[in-house]
Amino acid sequence: MTPTHTEEVATVTDTTFAEEVLAADLPVLVKFTASWCPPCRMIAPVLAEIAQEEAHRLKVVRLDVDQNPSTTTAYGVLSMPTLMLFRAGEPVRSLVGARTKRRLLEELGDAI
Hints:
Elements: H1 5-8, E1 10-11, H2 17-22, E2 28-33, H3 38-53, E3 59-64, H4 69-74, E4 82-87, E5 90-96, H5 101-108
Parallel strand pairs: 1-3, 2-3
Antiparallel strand pairs: 2-4, 4-5
Domain Thioredoxin: 1-112
Pfam family, one: Thioredoxin
InterPro entries: Thioredoxin, Thioredoxin-like_sf, Thioredoxin_CS, Thioredoxin_domain
């Protein structure tokens, strides 16, 4: 059975964000997403592949902006999908919009 993106990419919430993202040992790529967002669905399989292939050096999680307004507001997220890379509890890179796996890895390369 092929894993779906929800099996590969963990979900975080306002409640678990500090523990799962800010206190993580690895860099964490957070996908700020919404169920009504077509580009968010387009990039989901890309992030699932990256989560699986880069698990040794990168954690990938998703946060639903409609269900978690506190975190969304705290980081000034206005567009979906926003991909934000956190390292040592700090946002170090922010990208807006869907992109190919190769382009995403290139854009994140030096920050991971």
